[in-house]
Amino acid sequence: MLDTRYYWQNTGGRHRRTAAEGIGIGIRVMRRWMVAAIICLMAAGQARAEHAVAANSPLLQFLETVPSDLPVTELGGYIAFVDVRSMAADYYNFFPSAVDPLGQIRDMMRAYVVINWTTHYVSVRPALQDTLGFSWSEVDWIGEAGQPPERISAFGVTGNVTLEAVGRALAERRYETAVRDGVYVWHRFDDREIRPTEREPEDPFGGMLGQSARVAVLGDTVVGTPTWPLIEAATDVAGGDVNSVADMSAFRAVASVLSRSDVDTGPLLQAMIWADTVPRSEAAASILGANGTPERIAEVQAELERSPGMAGLLPTYSLMGVGDRQDGAAGIVDIVLIYDTAADARRAANVLPRRLRGYTSLASGQPILSLLGATASADVVAAEGHYAAVISLRQAPERPAVEPFDLGLLFRRFISLHYSRDSAFLAVGG
Q: Does some domain include residue 238?
Protein backbone atom coordinates (compact mmCIF):
# COMPACT_ATOMS: atom_id res chain seq x y z
CA MET A 1 0.00 0.00 0.00
CA LEU A 2 1.23 3.51 -0.79
CA ASP A 3 2.36 5.80 1.98
CA THR A 4 -0.46 8.35 2.25
CA ARG A 5 1.19 10.77 4.68
CA TYR A 6 1.26 13.43 1.98
CA TYR A 7 -2.26 12.93 0.68
CA TRP A 8 -4.24 16.13 1.04
CA GLN A 9 -7.60 15.72 2.70
CA ASN A 10 -8.76 19.23 1.82
CA THR A 11 -12.19 18.65 0.29
CA GLY A 12 -13.38 22.23 0.70
CA GLY A 13 -16.54 21.07 2.48
CA ARG A 14 -18.02 20.03 -0.83
CA HIS A 15 -21.36 18.20 -0.86
CA ARG A 16 -20.91 14.57 -1.89
CA ARG A 17 -23.28 11.85 -2.96
CA THR A 18 -22.29 8.18 -2.83
CA ALA A 19 -23.16 6.31 -6.04
CA ALA A 20 -23.25 2.59 -6.74
CA GLU A 21 -19.84 1.16 -7.66
CA GLY A 22 -19.84 0.76 -11.42
CA ILE A 23 -18.26 -1.99 -13.43
CA GLY A 24 -16.22 0.62 -15.29
CA ILE A 25 -15.87 -1.40 -18.47
CA GLY A 26 -15.53 0.11 -21.94
CA ILE A 27 -18.75 0.70 -23.79
CA ARG A 28 -18.55 -0.59 -27.33
CA VAL A 29 -22.12 -1.25 -28.30
CA MET A 30 -24.29 0.08 -31.08
CA ARG A 31 -26.47 3.10 -30.44
CA ARG A 32 -29.70 1.33 -31.26
CA TRP A 33 -29.01 -1.39 -28.73
CA MET A 34 -28.18 1.23 -26.11
CA VAL A 35 -31.43 3.09 -26.73
CA ALA A 36 -33.46 -0.09 -26.35
CA ALA A 37 -31.55 -1.11 -23.23
CA ILE A 38 -31.92 2.29 -21.61
CA ILE A 39 -35.64 2.46 -22.31
CA CYS A 40 -36.13 -0.98 -20.79
CA LEU A 41 -34.12 0.00 -17.74
CA MET A 42 -36.00 3.23 -17.31
CA ALA A 43 -39.28 1.40 -17.62
CA ALA A 44 -38.03 -0.79 -14.79
CA GLY A 45 -37.32 2.47 -12.99
CA GLN A 46 -34.73 5.22 -12.73
CA ALA A 47 -34.47 7.63 -9.84
CA ARG A 48 -35.29 11.29 -10.45
CA ALA A 49 -32.28 13.44 -9.55
CA GLU A 50 -32.27 16.80 -7.84
CA HIS A 51 -31.45 19.91 -9.85
CA ALA A 52 -30.38 22.30 -7.09
CA VAL A 53 -27.34 24.42 -7.92
CA ALA A 54 -24.82 24.69 -5.06
CA ALA A 55 -23.49 28.08 -4.01
CA ASN A 56 -20.00 26.84 -4.86
CA SER A 57 -20.88 25.63 -8.33
CA PRO A 58 -19.05 22.70 -9.98
CA LEU A 59 -17.81 25.06 -12.71
CA LEU A 60 -16.27 27.34 -10.09
CA GLN A 61 -14.71 24.31 -8.41
CA PHE A 62 -12.97 23.48 -11.67
CA LEU A 63 -11.78 27.07 -12.13
CA GLU A 64 -10.28 26.84 -8.64
CA THR A 65 -7.90 24.14 -9.92
CA VAL A 66 -6.63 26.09 -12.96
CA PRO A 67 -3.47 28.23 -12.46
CA SER A 68 -4.07 31.87 -13.34
CA ASP A 69 -0.97 32.00 -15.57
CA LEU A 70 -2.23 29.20 -17.84
CA PRO A 71 -2.85 30.66 -21.34
CA VAL A 72 -6.64 30.80 -21.05
CA THR A 73 -6.69 34.57 -21.41
CA GLU A 74 -5.01 34.57 -24.82
CA LEU A 75 -6.11 33.90 -28.40
CA GLY A 76 -6.70 30.17 -28.74
CA GLY A 77 -6.98 29.55 -25.00
CA TYR A 78 -10.16 27.99 -23.69
CA ILE A 79 -11.92 26.39 -20.73
CA ALA A 80 -14.21 23.41 -21.32
CA PHE A 81 -16.39 21.92 -18.59
CA VAL A 82 -18.94 19.13 -18.19
CA ASP A 83 -21.09 18.58 -15.07
CA VAL A 84 -21.26 14.80 -15.31
CA ARG A 85 -23.62 14.29 -12.39
CA SER A 86 -26.20 16.86 -13.51
CA MET A 87 -25.92 15.74 -17.13
CA ALA A 88 -26.61 12.11 -16.32
CA ALA A 89 -29.44 13.09 -13.95
CA ASP A 90 -31.10 15.24 -16.60
CA TYR A 91 -30.77 12.41 -19.08
CA TYR A 92 -32.40 9.94 -16.71
CA ASN A 93 -35.21 12.38 -15.98
CA PHE A 94 -36.19 12.10 -19.62
CA PHE A 95 -37.93 8.89 -18.54
CA PRO A 96 -40.57 8.29 -15.82
CA SER A 97 -39.05 8.15 -12.36
CA ALA A 98 -39.09 5.07 -10.15
CA VAL A 99 -36.73 3.01 -8.02
CA ASP A 100 -33.40 2.17 -9.65
CA PRO A 101 -32.58 -1.52 -9.06
CA LEU A 102 -29.61 -1.77 -11.44
CA GLY A 103 -26.90 0.56 -10.21
CA GLN A 104 -24.03 -1.08 -12.07
CA ILE A 105 -25.67 -0.81 -15.46
CA ARG A 106 -26.77 2.71 -14.58
CA ASP A 107 -23.11 3.60 -14.13
CA MET A 108 -22.41 2.11 -17.54
CA MET A 109 -25.15 4.32 -18.96
CA ARG A 110 -23.59 7.38 -17.31
CA ALA A 111 -20.35 6.89 -19.25
CA TYR A 112 -22.23 6.45 -22.50
CA VAL A 113 -24.40 9.51 -21.91
CA VAL A 114 -21.43 11.78 -21.26
CA ILE A 115 -19.51 10.53 -24.28
CA ASN A 116 -22.54 10.79 -26.56
CA TRP A 117 -23.75 14.17 -25.31
CA THR A 118 -20.67 16.34 -24.95
CA THR A 119 -18.51 18.08 -27.52
CA HIS A 120 -15.21 16.48 -28.42
CA TYR A 121 -13.29 19.33 -26.80
CA VAL A 122 -13.29 17.51 -23.48
CA SER A 123 -11.33 14.25 -23.36
CA VAL A 124 -13.82 11.62 -22.27
CA ARG A 125 -13.17 7.88 -22.36
CA PRO A 126 -15.35 5.12 -20.92
CA ALA A 127 -12.96 2.73 -19.14
CA LEU A 128 -12.01 4.86 -16.14
CA GLN A 129 -11.96 1.88 -13.78
CA ASP A 130 -9.13 0.33 -15.78
CA THR A 131 -7.22 3.51 -16.60
CA LEU A 132 -7.58 5.61 -13.42
CA GLY A 133 -8.88 3.21 -10.78
CA PHE A 134 -12.41 4.58 -10.31
CA SER A 135 -15.74 4.24 -12.08
CA TRP A 136 -17.94 6.84 -13.72
CA SER A 137 -20.31 6.76 -10.76
CA GLU A 138 -17.58 8.54 -8.75
CA VAL A 139 -17.18 11.43 -11.22
CA ASP A 140 -18.87 14.76 -10.44
CA TRP A 141 -17.41 16.85 -13.27
CA ILE A 142 -14.63 16.96 -15.86
CA GLY A 143 -12.80 19.91 -17.37
CA GLU A 144 -9.93 21.05 -19.56
CA ALA A 145 -8.21 24.43 -19.71
CA GLY A 146 -5.33 26.03 -21.55
CA GLN A 147 -3.96 26.24 -25.04
CA PRO A 148 -2.57 22.98 -26.46
CA PRO A 149 -0.07 21.68 -25.61
CA GLU A 150 -0.15 23.77 -22.39
CA ARG A 151 -3.32 22.21 -21.04
CA ILE A 152 -4.66 20.90 -17.73
CA SER A 153 -7.31 18.18 -17.56
CA ALA A 154 -9.19 17.38 -14.36
CA PHE A 155 -11.80 15.03 -12.90
CA GLY A 156 -13.78 16.20 -9.88
CA VAL A 157 -14.52 13.02 -7.91
CA THR A 158 -16.32 11.83 -4.79
CA GLY A 159 -14.70 10.87 -1.50
CA ASN A 160 -14.78 7.20 -2.53
CA VAL A 161 -11.83 7.77 -4.88
CA THR A 162 -8.57 7.04 -3.06
CA LEU A 163 -4.94 7.83 -3.70
CA GLU A 164 -4.14 4.13 -3.45
CA ALA A 165 -6.67 3.09 -6.10
CA VAL A 166 -5.50 5.73 -8.60
CA GLY A 167 -1.84 4.93 -7.95
CA ARG A 168 -2.38 1.20 -8.36
CA ALA A 169 -4.20 1.63 -11.69
CA LEU A 170 -1.49 3.93 -13.06
CA ALA A 171 1.37 1.74 -11.81
CA GLU A 172 -0.17 -1.29 -13.54
CA ARG A 173 0.00 0.72 -16.77
CA ARG A 174 3.71 1.35 -16.32
CA TYR A 175 3.47 4.90 -14.99
CA GLU A 176 6.46 5.78 -12.80
CA THR A 177 6.04 7.34 -9.36
CA ALA A 178 7.65 10.46 -7.93
CA VAL A 179 7.06 12.71 -4.93
CA ARG A 180 7.18 16.45 -5.67
CA ASP A 181 6.80 18.87 -2.76
CA GLY A 182 5.17 16.14 -0.70
CA VAL A 183 2.66 15.14 -3.39
CA TYR A 184 2.62 11.83 -5.26
CA VAL A 185 2.82 12.28 -9.05
CA TRP A 186 2.56 9.41 -11.54
CA HIS A 187 4.28 10.16 -14.83
CA ARG A 188 5.33 8.83 -18.23
CA PHE A 189 7.73 10.07 -20.93
CA ASP A 190 9.62 13.37 -21.13
CA ASP A 191 7.79 16.70 -21.21
CA ARG A 192 5.67 17.05 -24.39
CA GLU A 193 7.01 13.77 -25.77
CA ILE A 194 4.66 11.76 -28.00
CA ARG A 195 5.11 8.04 -28.65
CA PRO A 196 2.57 6.92 -31.26
CA THR A 197 3.51 3.25 -30.75
CA GLU A 198 2.48 3.48 -27.08
CA ARG A 199 -0.96 4.99 -27.58
CA GLU A 200 -3.64 4.08 -25.00
CA PRO A 201 -6.91 5.52 -26.35
CA GLU A 202 -8.78 4.84 -23.10
CA ASP A 203 -6.39 7.04 -21.08
CA PRO A 204 -7.93 10.56 -20.86
CA PHE A 205 -4.57 12.20 -20.11
CA GLY A 206 -3.05 12.25 -23.58
CA GLY A 207 -3.37 8.52 -24.19
CA MET A 208 -5.05 9.00 -27.56
CA LEU A 209 -1.76 10.40 -28.91
CA GLY A 210 0.64 8.48 -26.70
CA GLN A 211 1.53 11.80 -25.08
CA SER A 212 3.54 12.52 -21.94
CA ALA A 213 1.48 12.79 -18.76
CA ARG A 214 1.83 13.73 -15.09
CA VAL A 215 -1.10 12.76 -12.85
CA ALA A 216 -1.76 13.79 -9.23
CA VAL A 217 -4.63 13.42 -6.76
CA LEU A 218 -5.18 16.83 -5.20
CA GLY A 219 -7.95 16.55 -2.62
CA ASP A 220 -11.14 15.74 -4.51
CA THR A 221 -9.62 16.38 -7.95
CA VAL A 222 -7.56 14.09 -10.19
CA VAL A 223 -5.38 16.35 -12.36
CA GLY A 224 -3.37 15.48 -15.46
CA THR A 225 -0.91 17.63 -17.47
CA PRO A 226 1.71 16.94 -20.18
CA THR A 227 4.59 18.71 -18.37
CA TRP A 228 6.21 18.96 -14.95
CA PRO A 229 5.86 22.77 -14.65
CA LEU A 230 2.09 22.49 -15.19
CA ILE A 231 1.52 19.73 -12.63
CA GLU A 232 3.66 21.67 -10.13
CA ALA A 233 1.58 24.80 -10.83
CA ALA A 234 -1.61 22.82 -10.22
CA THR A 235 -0.12 21.49 -6.97
CA ASP A 236 0.75 25.06 -5.90
CA VAL A 237 -2.82 26.18 -6.66
CA ALA A 238 -4.24 23.33 -4.56
CA GLY A 239 -1.88 24.26 -1.73
CA GLY A 240 -2.90 27.92 -1.85
CA ASP A 241 0.53 29.16 -2.94
CA VAL A 242 -0.51 30.27 -6.45
CA ASN A 243 -3.66 32.07 -7.61
CA SER A 244 -6.21 30.21 -9.68
CA VAL A 245 -8.38 31.41 -12.54
CA ALA A 246 -11.21 31.59 -9.99
CA ASP A 247 -9.32 34.44 -8.29
CA MET A 248 -9.94 36.57 -11.40
CA SER A 249 -13.25 38.41 -10.99
CA ALA A 250 -14.29 38.16 -14.66
CA PHE A 251 -13.99 34.35 -14.56
CA ARG A 252 -15.92 34.22 -11.29
CA ALA A 253 -18.59 36.39 -12.88
CA VAL A 254 -19.04 34.18 -15.95
CA ALA A 255 -19.11 31.06 -13.75
CA SER A 256 -21.70 32.67 -11.48
CA VAL A 257 -23.97 33.69 -14.36
CA LEU A 258 -23.70 30.37 -16.20
CA SER A 259 -24.41 28.46 -12.96
CA ARG A 260 -27.14 30.75 -11.64
CA SER A 261 -30.07 29.09 -9.91
CA ASP A 262 -32.67 31.83 -10.48
CA VAL A 263 -33.83 30.33 -13.76
CA ASP A 264 -36.65 27.93 -14.44
CA THR A 265 -34.55 25.59 -16.56
CA GLY A 266 -32.29 22.83 -15.30
CA PRO A 267 -28.71 23.21 -14.03
CA LEU A 268 -25.67 24.01 -16.12
CA LEU A 269 -24.66 20.83 -17.93
CA GLN A 270 -21.62 21.89 -19.91
CA ALA A 271 -19.82 25.11 -20.76
CA MET A 272 -16.97 26.68 -22.66
CA ILE A 273 -15.22 29.96 -21.87
CA TRP A 274 -13.00 32.09 -24.12
CA ALA A 275 -11.16 35.37 -23.55
CA ASP A 276 -10.35 36.23 -27.15
CA THR A 277 -12.42 38.62 -29.27
CA VAL A 278 -12.39 39.47 -32.98
CA PRO A 279 -12.69 43.12 -34.08
CA ARG A 280 -15.40 43.71 -36.66
CA SER A 281 -12.82 45.08 -39.11
CA GLU A 282 -10.99 41.73 -38.98
CA ALA A 283 -14.03 39.46 -39.12
CA ALA A 284 -13.47 38.27 -42.69
CA ALA A 285 -9.78 37.58 -42.10
CA SER A 286 -10.73 35.53 -39.04
CA ILE A 287 -13.31 33.51 -40.97
CA LEU A 288 -11.07 32.75 -43.94
CA GLY A 289 -7.88 32.19 -41.97
CA ALA A 290 -4.71 31.22 -43.81
CA ASN A 291 -6.69 30.34 -46.94
CA GLY A 292 -7.94 33.88 -47.47
CA THR A 293 -6.32 35.94 -50.22
CA PRO A 294 -6.42 39.73 -49.79
CA GLU A 295 -9.01 39.92 -52.57
CA ARG A 296 -11.26 37.28 -51.00
CA ILE A 297 -10.93 38.82 -47.53
CA ALA A 298 -12.00 42.21 -48.92
CA GLU A 299 -14.93 40.58 -50.73
CA VAL A 300 -16.20 38.77 -47.63
CA GLN A 301 -15.68 41.83 -45.42
CA ALA A 302 -17.78 43.91 -47.81
CA GLU A 303 -20.45 41.21 -47.76
CA LEU A 304 -20.47 41.27 -43.97
CA GLU A 305 -20.77 45.05 -43.86
CA ARG A 306 -23.90 44.86 -46.02
CA SER A 307 -25.45 42.21 -43.79
CA PRO A 308 -28.16 43.16 -41.26
CA GLY A 309 -26.53 40.47 -39.12
CA MET A 310 -23.69 42.91 -38.38
CA ALA A 311 -25.88 45.90 -37.51
CA GLY A 312 -25.07 47.95 -34.44
CA LEU A 313 -21.96 48.32 -32.32
CA LEU A 314 -21.12 45.37 -30.08
CA PRO A 315 -18.89 46.66 -27.26
CA THR A 316 -15.65 44.78 -26.61
CA TYR A 317 -16.20 42.20 -23.87
CA SER A 318 -13.53 40.80 -21.56
CA LEU A 319 -14.80 37.22 -21.49
CA MET A 320 -17.36 35.04 -23.24
CA GLY A 321 -18.98 31.95 -21.76
CA VAL A 322 -21.40 29.58 -23.45
CA GLY A 323 -23.52 27.26 -21.30
CA ASP A 324 -25.85 24.35 -22.01
CA ARG A 325 -29.10 23.68 -20.13
CA GLN A 326 -32.26 21.69 -20.76
CA ASP A 327 -35.90 22.62 -20.27
CA GLY A 328 -37.56 19.26 -20.79
CA ALA A 329 -36.77 18.27 -24.37
CA ALA A 330 -35.78 21.82 -25.36
CA GLY A 331 -32.14 22.87 -25.28
CA ILE A 332 -31.14 26.27 -23.86
CA VAL A 333 -27.80 27.89 -24.75
CA ASP A 334 -26.72 30.96 -22.78
CA ILE A 335 -24.16 33.25 -24.42
CA VAL A 336 -22.66 35.33 -21.60
CA LEU A 337 -20.54 38.40 -22.41
CA ILE A 338 -18.77 40.05 -19.46
CA TYR A 339 -18.49 43.86 -19.24
CA ASP A 340 -17.24 46.36 -16.69
CA THR A 341 -20.21 48.73 -17.07
CA ALA A 342 -23.96 48.22 -17.12
CA ALA A 343 -24.25 50.53 -20.15
CA ASP A 344 -22.01 48.30 -22.28
CA ALA A 345 -23.84 45.18 -21.14
CA ARG A 346 -27.22 46.74 -22.00
CA ARG A 347 -25.91 47.80 -25.41
CA ALA A 348 -24.69 44.25 -26.09
CA ALA A 349 -28.00 42.77 -24.92
CA ASN A 350 -29.77 45.04 -27.39
CA VAL A 351 -27.42 44.53 -30.36
CA LEU A 352 -26.65 40.81 -30.32
CA PRO A 353 -30.22 39.42 -30.59
CA ARG A 354 -30.81 41.72 -33.58
CA ARG A 355 -27.58 40.52 -35.14
CA LEU A 356 -28.60 36.91 -34.63
CA ARG A 357 -31.96 37.50 -36.28
CA GLY A 358 -30.30 39.12 -39.30
CA TYR A 359 -27.15 37.01 -39.71
CA THR A 360 -26.83 34.47 -42.52
CA SER A 361 -24.32 31.65 -42.20
CA LEU A 362 -21.50 32.09 -44.69
CA ALA A 363 -20.99 28.32 -44.82
CA SER A 364 -24.58 27.16 -45.41
CA GLY A 365 -26.35 30.30 -46.67
CA GLN A 366 -29.06 29.78 -44.03
CA PRO A 367 -30.26 32.36 -41.50
CA ILE A 368 -28.32 31.54 -38.34
CA LEU A 369 -31.35 31.06 -36.08
CA SER A 370 -32.95 28.74 -38.64
CA LEU A 371 -29.69 26.80 -38.85
CA LEU A 372 -29.58 26.50 -35.06
CA GLY A 373 -33.31 25.83 -34.83
CA ALA A 374 -33.65 28.41 -32.06
CA THR A 375 -35.14 31.70 -30.92
CA ALA A 376 -33.19 34.45 -29.12
CA SER A 377 -33.85 36.66 -26.07
CA ALA A 378 -31.60 38.82 -23.87
CA ASP A 379 -31.09 40.03 -20.32
CA VAL A 380 -28.47 41.85 -18.20
CA VAL A 381 -27.17 40.33 -14.96
CA ALA A 382 -24.81 41.83 -12.37
CA ALA A 383 -22.16 39.51 -10.93
CA GLU A 384 -18.85 39.84 -9.05
CA GLY A 385 -18.52 43.56 -9.76
CA HIS A 386 -19.15 43.04 -13.49
CA TYR A 387 -22.18 43.07 -15.75
CA ALA A 388 -23.16 40.24 -18.07
CA ALA A 389 -25.15 40.48 -21.27
CA VAL A 390 -26.95 37.13 -21.40
CA ILE A 391 -28.35 36.09 -24.76
CA SER A 392 -30.41 32.92 -24.44
CA LEU A 393 -31.01 30.69 -27.45
CA ARG A 394 -33.95 28.35 -27.03
CA GLN A 395 -34.28 25.27 -29.15
CA ALA A 396 -37.46 25.01 -31.20
CA PRO A 397 -37.73 21.23 -31.73
CA GLU A 398 -38.64 20.19 -35.26
CA ARG A 399 -40.46 17.22 -33.78
CA PRO A 400 -41.31 16.00 -30.27
CA ALA A 401 -38.20 14.36 -28.80
CA VAL A 402 -38.68 10.59 -28.54
CA GLU A 403 -35.27 9.74 -27.18
CA PRO A 404 -32.71 11.68 -25.12
CA PHE A 405 -30.00 11.70 -27.77
CA ASP A 406 -31.30 15.06 -29.01
CA LEU A 407 -30.29 16.62 -25.70
CA GLY A 408 -27.35 19.00 -26.02
CA LEU A 409 -27.85 19.36 -29.77
CA LEU A 410 -28.22 23.15 -29.73
CA PHE A 411 -25.02 23.55 -27.71
CA ARG A 412 -23.06 21.33 -30.09
CA ARG A 413 -24.35 23.27 -33.09
CA PHE A 414 -23.34 26.60 -31.59
CA ILE A 415 -19.87 25.41 -30.57
CA SER A 416 -19.33 24.02 -34.07
CA LEU A 417 -20.26 27.42 -35.54
CA HIS A 418 -17.82 29.20 -33.27
CA TYR A 419 -14.93 26.86 -34.03
CA SER A 420 -15.58 27.04 -37.76
CA ARG A 421 -15.44 30.86 -37.45
CA ASP A 422 -18.99 31.12 -38.78
CA SER A 423 -19.83 33.47 -35.90
CA ALA A 424 -18.98 36.92 -37.22
CA PHE A 425 -22.08 38.21 -35.39
CA LEU A 426 -19.86 38.16 -32.27
CA ALA A 427 -17.29 40.53 -33.80
CA VAL A 428 -16.85 43.62 -31.64
CA GLY A 429 -16.96 47.23 -32.76
CA GLY A 430 -19.29 49.17 -35.00
A: yes
CA distance 167 to 170: 5
Does 188 share its domain with 318? no
Residues sharing a CB contact under 8 Å with residue 139, sequence separation 6 or more, in sequence order = 84, 85, 110, 128, 155, 156, 157, 158
Vertex 273: Cα angle to 270 and 275 (nearest 5) = 175
Domain end position, chosen among 213, 242, 271: 242
Q: What is the pLDDT of residues 277-286, one digit of tens each?
A: 899 999 999 8
pTM above 0.85, yes or no: no
Hey, how many other C-beta atoms are within 10 angstroms of the C-beta on 103?
15
Distance, in Å, from the CA atom of 285 to the CA atom of 200, rounded to the nearest integer, reads 38
Do 215 and 108 lie in one domain? The reply is yes
